[in-house]
Amino acid sequence: MSLVSARDVAHLRARHLDDSLALQEHLGGAGTLLDVGSGGGFPGIPLAIANPEIEVTLVERNQRKSSFLQHVVMALELVNVDVINSDIRDARDTLSTFDVITARAVTTPDQIWAWCRGLLSENGRVLLQMASPIKEVLNDGIGESHRSSGIGWINVVRRAVS
Fold this sequence. Notes:
Helix content is 26%, strand content 30%.
């Protein structure tokens, strides 16, 4: 059972696993992590496995993908992972705050920021995995781009200090 395309199986490690784990260096001190639009579980599942001390919440709106994530969590006995089958826009009111929020190929950076900035803890950050550095100005957010040790760029967005 897999949600990775057949053509991606040969590149599973580089395109998905290594790329997910490239976020490790930006987790510093995080106790909670929200993965928005988790899809096949990247980057949330690899980060949960590598960081069992972090409570990970996966939010996925597609029922099939969400069921797959539930199956993976149970099969791997990941006690630090919770799966929510919902659109992030609908789930926001039921969620607490998070130290780190990840999003990979979900929507534009300004849209993710609009949906998620209210879910960040005081010193929280949003980690966006993208093909290029962030260029747009985000309402009350400051972004910095880092070349990923995986693929592309990791764009770290924090609230602007007033």
